[in-house]
């Protein structure tokens, strides 16, 4: 056995140390591709193969998806905890603030804040017939007293403000617009007529500019000029087409020469 065969046999006997290499049944096998490898010399070629690279990419994608799926509940729980803490903080701030919009303490139970009784109620009591039996008033509870004070201080105040707004709206006076003369009285009629004439001239659009008639000589020169322009356009178009054709011929010749040189080089190589 020559040295080359010995070296090959030694290389085949060497055990592959790689995270994806496995010798479960004595045969070298790739755990990613589940593919048996003939010998250790073919391991490097398998790692560089397209199928192995695709399997590696697929495995990485699956691992990333699993990691994200595992992190998603933790993120949701952290977000929920953050929302709960923010809600609790807002609630504490609201509770700690003084009741700026609410009524002060002992507002309804303070008798000094109650409004005096209306005169109409007193007059109705005086006009009531004396023969009617006077029924003893029922003792008002504290809740009724607070409700009565609330009506007098809040509801009656809103009704009074609305009645003032309605009274102000009814007091508004509307007048028709009055047209004024163009010129005050006392100005001469001639000045007014001049002013109206000047305004009429400004309002009228300017007349269109007259188009001069074309003479026979001018028409002849115009036709000759148009004919010359057409001839020049045709000449330029023909020159452009000829130039494109020359370029195509030159490109074809260059390609033909390249093919000939390649053939000659191949024949010499043989």
Essential attributes:
2% strand, mainly alpha, 270 residues, three-stranded antiparallel beta sheet, 63% helix, flat, 3 strands
Question: Would you write up a description of this structure?
Answer:
The protein is mainly α and 270 residues long. Among the domains are: 1-48, no CATH class; 60-94; 230-270. The chain contains seven helices and three strands. Strands 1-2-3 form a three-stranded antiparallel β-sheet, with no helix packed on it. It starts with a helix and ends with a helix.
What global shape is seen? flat
* Largest β-sheet summary: 3 strands, antiparallel
C-alpha-based Rg, rounded: 54 Å
Averaged pLDDT: 74
Percent of residues in helices: 55-70%
- What is the chain-wise order of helices and strands? HEEEHHHHHH
Strand content: under 5%
Order of strands across the widest beta sheet? 1-2-3
Number of separate strands: 3
The secondary structure category is mainly alpha
Compact overview of the structure:
This protein is mainly alpha-helical. It has helices at 3-13, 43-47, 50-96, 119-127, 142-170, 189-203, 216-269; strands spanning 21-22, 29-30, 35-36.
List the helices and strands and how they pair.
Layout: H1 3-13, E1 21-22, E2 29-30, E3 35-36, H2 43-47, H3 50-96, H4 119-127, H5 142-170, H6 189-203, H7 216-269
Antiparallel strand pairs: 1-2, 2-3
């Amino acid at each position: 056995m020559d040295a080359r065969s010995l070296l090959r046999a030694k290389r085949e006997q060497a055990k592959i140390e790689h995270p994806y290499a496995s010798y479960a049944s004595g045969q070298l096998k790739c755990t990613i591709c589940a593919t048996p490898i003939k010998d250790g010399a073919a391991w490097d070629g398998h790692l560089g193969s397209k199928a192995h690279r695709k399997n590696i990419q697929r495995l990485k994608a699956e691992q990333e998806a699993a990691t994200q799926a595992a992190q998603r509940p933790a993120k949701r729980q952290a977000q929920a905890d953050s929302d709960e803490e923010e809600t609790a903080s807002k609630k504490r701030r609201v509770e700690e603030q003084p009741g700026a919009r609410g009524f002060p303490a002992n507002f309804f139970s303070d008798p000094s804040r109650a409004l005096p009784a209306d005169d109409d109620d007193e007059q109705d009591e005086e006009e009531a017939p004396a023969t009617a039996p006077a029924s003893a008033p029922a003792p008002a509870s504290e809740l009724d007293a607070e409700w009565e004070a609330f009506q007098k201080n809040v509801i009656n105040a809103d009704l009074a403000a609305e009645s003032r707004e309605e009274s102000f709206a009814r007091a508004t006076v509307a007048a028709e617009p009055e047209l004024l003369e163009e010129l005050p009285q006392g100005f001469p009629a001639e000045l007014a007529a001049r002013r109206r004439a000047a305004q009429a001239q400004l309002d009228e659009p300017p007349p269109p500019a007259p188009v001069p008639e074309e003479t026979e000589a001018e028409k002849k020169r115009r036709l000759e000029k148009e004919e010359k322009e057409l001839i020049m356009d045709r000449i330029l178009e023909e020159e452009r087409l000829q130039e494109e054709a020359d370029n195509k011929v030159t490109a074809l010749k260059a390609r033909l020469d390249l093919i000939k040189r390649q053939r000659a080089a191949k024949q010499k190589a043989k």
